[in-house]
Amino acid sequence: MSQDILINWAPQETRVAVVEQGAVQEVHFERTLERGLVGNIYLGKISRVLPGMQSAFIDIGLDRAAFLHVADLMPNIVAKHATPRDRTPATASAEGGAGVAGEVQANPRVLTPDPVLPIERQIFEGQALMVQVLKDPIGSKGARLTAQISIAGRLLVYLPQDNHVGVSQKIPPAQRESLRQRVLGLAQGKDGVSAGGFILRTNAEDATDAELGEDIAYLRKTWHRIKDAAARQPSATVLHEDLNLIQRVLRDLVSSETQSIRIDSREQFGLLQGFAVEFMPDTEAKLQLYTGERPIFDLFSIDEDIARALSRRVDLKSGGYLVIDQTEALTTVDVNTGGYVGARNFDDTVFRTNLEAAQTIARQLRLRNLGGIVIVDFIDMVREDHRDAVMGEFRKQLSRDRVKTMIGGFSQLGLVEMTRKRTRESLAQMLSEPCGACKGKGIVKTARSVCYDVLREILREARAFNPREFRVVAAPQVIELFLDEERQHLAGLSDFIGKPISLQSEGSMTQEQYDIVLL
Questions:
Q1: For a disulfide at 155, which of 215, 274, 398, 482, Cβ 3.0-4.6 Å?
Q2: CA distance 442 to 434
Q3: Rounded CA gap, 212 and 200, in Å?
Q4: pLDDT score recorded for residue 108
């Protein structure tokens, strides 16, 4: 299936769309002000060593000095036949912050205590030291650093200061050792010695030797550039920044099916060309500068698709529709026939609706980047061949997803259960926030319900206090109801408590908000 990648660049935000057969399948965003420092490598200068805290402050050119603990300066244990640590800056920053922390599976090993040299005996003030950001600065605290460097690739994480190969624990146990041996073989130099260690990421499970070899070459070339920069640059300068979204397009999204990569910024096109020539020459011929008058995302109505992807309802061409609900625990998809009556009988109507739904659901999962458990409620089908055909089409569409999915058959209740690996925030989480009026519930109390809450609250207050007057401050729609349909109830309560009740409309209040002022 042919694929096109469109890149819309602006100083404040970069947007990437993956289009297959004229329909957008994935969207990726990166905002300039939200880019962190995690994964960046600096040549720092030690500004202060604190023996009492066994830590040091490092000047890396930021507003505040960064923090380095002795545990991040050198390992505090000796591990025989050990895999690399499972928390690295690269794993923390890869995949847009979703990372692979915790994926590394340690082989059986023997740990023996090894006394750590005090930090004041390892480093000194004024010394230049290569460091990597583990944690972004927060508030008044500077960045957290490590001297144990790691660099993320598409399939592997490179550990230049280590010589072991670790495997993600999310890869099935039966495949781990064979993958490990393959990487060991590919990583060996002419002298039979591997320069540096590697962590196999989850998406390396089905990688070919050629793909693994390309990733190894890219990571080693990146490390050589970092070392060369460290030898030439002064202290407190950045040596390597984690790839931005445009560069990650070449590393993570381009495949043999990619026909073109179009970008609408001449400056960024030149930078991306240089990156491709140096690190990924096979992709350079696919790069194109878009100079059309229409915005690049208008070519495939991508902005409209993004807007629709934030809605619960997805209309099908046949007249049916989907209702997609994302919750904390799982995502549910409900298929409905709607107004579709095109088939000759009801069974065919249901079958055709479900068949189209299977294609649309797979696309929506990618477009919305929905991860975790997904429950699909197809319309009930009586015929077994119809059920098999729908399930076959669903599996076929899901197989095109670059993110790993697992799917079962129809349950006894007619539901389809599946999982899709979480790699980053969903589209809704990235572009939206909980509603200020309903606090994320999706519903608010009716104005009449709020009126009755107010009446009960006034009665409660009247029994506890003896003010001269009660004043109700509430949203305009609640005040309007008190002045119209609920006027008699308000007057009756005023007579009952023997106190006047005045009303004040406040446009900044949501429908559920109100205040009762005692005057």
A1: 215
A2: 9
A3: 9
A4: 35
Q: What's the CA gap between 399 and 366, in Å, rounded?
A: 11
Q: How many CB atoms lie within 10 A of CB 346?
A: 12
d(CA 265, CA 289): 7
Q: How many helices (H) and strands (E) does the chain have?
A: 12, 27
User: Distance between CA atoms of 116 and 298, rounded to whole angstroms?
Assistant: 59
| Helix (H), strand (E) at residue 209 | helix 209-232
In this predicted model, what pLDDT tens digit does every residue of 320-372 receive, in sequence order? 899 999 888 899 999 998 765 555 678 888 899 999 999 999 999 999 999 89
Q: What Cα–Cα distance (Å) separates residue 227 from each residue in 58, 233, 334, 341? A: 19, 10, 54, 67
Task: Count CB-CB contacts under 10 A for residue 129.
Answer: 20
> Radius of gyration over alpha carbons of the chain, in Å?
30
Mapping DSSP onto H, E and C, the string for 434-484 reads CCCCCCCCCCCCCHHHHHHHHHHHHHHHHHHCCCCCEEEEECHHHHHHHHC
> In one letter, which amino acid is 197?
G
Q: How far apart are CA 246 and CA 370, in angstroms?
A: 22
Q: Which pair of structure tokens corresponds to residue 81?
A: 């036949």
- The answer to whether 117 and 123 have CB atoms below 8 angstroms apart is no
Which 3 state secondary structure label does DSSP give 274?
A: helix
| 450 vs 447: CA distance, rounded Å | 5
Determine how many CB atoms are found less than 10 A away from the CB of residue 334. Answer: 17
Tell me the per-residue pLDDT of 166-220, one tens digit each, with 9 for 90 and over.
888 778 888 889 998 999 888 886 555 567 899 998 778 888 898 899 899 999 9
CB 405 within 8 A of CB 421: yes
pTM here is 0.72
110-119, 279-288, 326-335: least confidently modelled range: 110-119
Integer angstrom CA distances of residue 23 from 27, 256, 358: 11, 18, 16
